[in-house]
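#lab-general

N.A. 3:47 PM
ok so I finally got the sequence cleaned up, no stray characters, all 164 residues accounted for. can someone with queue access submit it? mine expired

B.Y. 3:52 PM
send it over

N.A. 3:53 PM
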Amino acid sequence: MTIRFGIITLSDRSARGEREDASAPALASFLQAENCSVLKRLILPDDESALRQTLAEWADSDELDVILTTGSTGFSPRDIAPEATKAVVEKDAPGLAEAMRAQSLTKTKHAMLSRAAAGIRGRTLIINLPGSPRGALENLGFIFPALPHAVQLLREDPRSEASH
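B.Y. 4:20 PM
back already:
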């Protein structure tokens, strides 16, 4: 089973072309090494309305199994990824964000400042990741082993029963 991903980078500076986006390319390389497909990539400023609209459009297109956002999960007044995500998902998936925070705490005490969220819209899983390439890769690595089963469940794949 090939998992289909979309990656959205949230960064005012990257959206303006003032800083190169390093997180999305790192995530895409990781995913491709895991035999996943990265079908969409986009850089947006830290704009809640734009992110809500993009998340809804991408999830509703039924082209993607998982949408990853990178950045905009902290305490800064412009950090809006969790709010936009929570506004568009139909079901929360708190275990993913909890697992990322718990594992990240073994690396840095700053992990407790993450407000990352995860949830489901239709048959698409949406997950917020940190903005730094290292943080984004570490967090994806923590939860990646559960994603194939999550996607099987969302697709209502009969094989999903085999791993229960």
